[in-house]
Write a structure and sequence with these properties.
This protein has helices at about 10-20, 40-50, 65-75, 90-100, 115-125, 140, 170-180, 180-185, 200-215, 220-230, 240-245, 260-265, 295-305, 305-315, 355-370; strands spanning about 55-60, 80-85, 110, 150-165, 195, 235, 250-255, 270-275, 280-285, 320, 345. It is α/β, with parallel strands linked by helices.
Length: about 375
């Protein structure tokens, strides 16, 4: 079913922040450690964290992968992780409302929207903490032009991909998809066979921004109009699209690789190809300025950004790692059709997406697809 999306999601969360939720929260990290050495070393940090006994994690990563991930932290330190999970924008709205009301429930926040992290930094809601593995991340590459280095850390990334069901597509269509997956979406043979997400999610918005804005000379708005001419079915979420694509209800979508890796491992007739360059939806972890368990929160940051914690999250999330030196040993990377692509990290600094430009972009994309 086609729909025209109301401007909710990311835009609503940005409005919440800019509407004067106010101040810098109900507490301060001024007298708290800025690194493990400030806490007296890792052993001392561990002891203080164990005394607190638990850590509250607000995470937008999937419940299955996050639960499996945090079990390793719990087993290692004997500290319980209390998980609250929701989508990035709704989770962030909850956290923002709590902080603005003087309530500090979250020790750690994980979500994937640059703009929300930037606004939280402006409000003073996230604090600077240099983990022992700070130097293991190329912040200039993955967080270009932002002031977020050391306030948020990249965990893993979902990569924008054009995905298709090989039981539905014809050999001619697959040839087009492998040659130029983005351009192939405008081919008339895909009319009525395509499912797309609206731009309420960070991953989908970034995919469109990469093609329409960053690669305007090659694709641009004219490309999006060509996609719209193929009468795509529009969904609010990528998850039901993945389920229906795997079942053969649709032939092709523009989504994210991590939604399909488990299906492919189970034998689903799915392949995908990346735009060149492709967009990255970067899952980032941040430390709130005021937390109920400040030492357990800092210990969790140390573990999550360590080689062990990072690699476990990449494994469970089936995403691409972000630390320097990470080796891709995923089964999906060994598929004969799999090919890497250069990754674009510029959504946070794309000029057309600054300020009200993001809402304008979302509106125009949705209006174009819903015509």
């Amino acid at each position: 079913m086609k729909f025209r999306s109301v401007l909710v999601g990311i835009t609503a969360a940005l409005c919440l922040l800019s509407a004067g939720c106010g101040g810098s929260g109900s507490g301060s990290s001024e007298n708290l450690p800025k690194n493990a050495a400030d806490a007296g070393g890792m052993d001392a940090l561990v002891e203080r964290a164990k005394d607190e006994g638990e850590v509250s994690l607000y995470a937008a990563t999937t419940e299955k992968s996050t639960t499996a991930w945090v079990e390793h932290f719990e087993k290692k330190y004997g500290i319980q992780v209390k998980l609250y999970r929701d989508g990035s924008t709704t989770l962030f709205q909850k956290w923002a409302q709590e902080v603005s009301g003087g309530v500090d429930n979250a020790d750690i926040v994980i979500q994937n929207v640059y703009q929300l992290w930037q606004d939280a930094e402006d409000k003073g809601w996230i604090t600077d903490y240099k983990t022992a593995n700070y130097g293991g991340y190329d912040f200039a590459k993955v967080l270009p032009g932002t002031g977020l280095a050391g306030r948020v850390y990249p965990l893993h990334q979902s990569i924008g991909a054009v995905v298709w069901n090989t039981d539905v597509t014809t050999p001619e269509q697959e040839k087009l998809l492998r040659e130029d997956p983005v351009a192939a979406m405008t081919d008339p043979s895909f009319k009525g066979q395509m499912a797309l997400g609206d731009t309420g999610g960070a991953t989908t918005a970034g995919n469109y921004a990469n093609v329409v804005l960053h690669q305007a000379d090659k694709y641009g708005w004219k490309w999006l109009e060509g996609v719209a001419d193929n009468d795509p079915a529009l969904f609010e979420s990528q998850i039901p699209i993945a389920e229906q694509l795997v079942k053969g209800e649709y032939a092709v979508t523009f989504g994210t690789d991590t939604l399909y890796n488990d299906y492919i491992a189970e034998g689903a007739p799915i392949e995908y190809a990346y735009p060149k360059p492709t967009n990255a939806a970067l899952w980032m972890i941040g430390l709130p300025t005021a937390t109920p368990h400040p030492y357990a929160a800092r210990l969790f940051m140390e573990w999550a950004t360590s080689d062990e914690g990072h690699d476990l999250m990449a494994e469970y999330g089936t995403g691409t790692g972000t630390r320097t030196g990470w080796t891709d040993e995923r089964a999906i990377a060994k598929e004969p059709w799999y090919a890497k692509s250069e990754v674009w990290y510029g959504m946070a600094t794309q000029s057309e997406l600054q300020g009200d430009g993001f809402a304008d972009f979302v509106s125009k994309v949705n209006a174009t697809l819903g015509k």
